[in-house]
Please model this.
Amino acid sequence: DFFDLGTGAPLGPGIRDGRLVGMPSGEARTAAGIGPDDAGRILALYFDGTVTLPSGTHTLHAYNAARVPDGGIGLYTAQWGDADRAHTVDGAGRTAEVTVADGRVRETAVRPGRGPVPEGTTVLVGR
Model:
């Protein structure tokens, strides 16, 4: 099973039209792909991201990924689709979601939301 049944998100890296659309962080992930002129490729991908909060800089642990690890923060964009983001933190006792647009916090919630993320908006999900 290469896709999360709850969200439909790939369990590994996702690339569309040459752009990264989803990735769990941590160790490098190997992915197979089709490049220009239908040439096959094997790629080693690694996601490394941070978010700056008033409390300081924190590591991002997921980018449009099916699961946010314990104690982690995931970043979700319009490319996530309309899957319920609550599935990314199944079983977590404490969670939070922060919606950011135009560099400003627009909304906060104690549980992740559902529905599409608008273009130009970033949603942070923590557990």
Q: What stands out?
A: Residues 96 and 110 are 4 Å apart (CA to CA).
